[in-house]
Predict the structure.
Amino acid sequence: MRTSRRVCVTAVATALAMSLSACGGSGSSSTDASTLKITANITDRTAMKAVVAAFERENPNAKIAVTYADTDRLQNTLPAQLSSDAGPDVFAVWPGYGNPAALRMLEGTGRLADLSGLDFVRKVPEDTQWVTQVSQRTYVVPANYSGIGAIYNKKSMRDIDGAEPETWDELLLLCDKAKAEGMVLFALGIKTSWVTQLVDYALAATTVYADRPDFAVAMSEGRTTFADSGWRKALEKYVELDERGCFSSDPLGTTYERSVQDVVEGRAVGVIQVASSISAITAEAPGLQLAMFALPATNNPAQTHMPGSVSAAYGVNRESDNKDLAMKFAEFLGSEAGQNAYNQGSGTLPAIPNDRFTTEPVLTELIEHQKAGTTVPFMDQLWPNPRVQQEHFIQIQSLFSGRTDIDGVLTALDEVYQEQ
């Protein structure tokens, strides 16, 4: 255990934790010292419930309690909880550097157990190792491979006599068709701050990376900036979609949860989201037929790229009092059975591929882009510090509220990117 100098932080972390939503693996929220405590993102609830159930079948004496929270709360509370010895045994960790609960940030403060000795490590694909390792030591289990694109209700698309657009102009015309039928094309819930990033990520995959696949390296070396790159065009198109009436009438007053309901209840044809949100939509309406397409940003379909990367990953608390069971769960999550349980029905692909996984049709376009080499990592995974993503959240909300313009957004992002 760590020293008493963290007593004050413990009180803060405990208070923050009280706002999280708890759900035990067997339907109970009560815990004791022998219970394995897991914290996961609320968007991965379906996936985590499935993998916990599979783990419990193999380990019937294991006691598990899972706590779910949205992205903002996790990123703000997990570091404080871990630093005060009030953290869970197993918890969501973001790949890369992009936020306070990301791999490089938590490993740098000594919060993650070394998983290098577990069997799954040998099977992690080479192009995925960069999001699981620091200095060639493995600290997280990659759980899924996800994408960002337009997820839509097939019935609603038929109702507006629409089809998946392959060009920017076709996308704008599809917005008009939705409006003519009293709908919006995309529900947009940027009252939930992490949602702010998804539309321009989907656009920047093409406007930035199609012509400059080395953009992230060029940024890190100081050879380009947000302001002098395709990020400007991505933001311009983001605003154009809003002005065209493609989004919810009040994005700043709409939450992520409301955006899901808008798709389920037919007020919106679809939503621009991470693929894991497919399970959130189908959980509300199991019979809904969904599909997904990459968001076009030019009138040349060959240029269209799609964000695709390891999305969910999990680490083990280095100071866990239940380390053996936590490591056993990590091993299971990295196994074929664990990967398939986590991803089947969740709108995502195993981060560690295997031949027994049955791919859902809704993921066809993501798989095609992955095979074609036209996916790009989620942008924040390659940013040098977590302040860039947080500033991005703030600036997009400011842009939509009229408190800044595109030049202001780009200047702010460049300033925080260059901070040491």
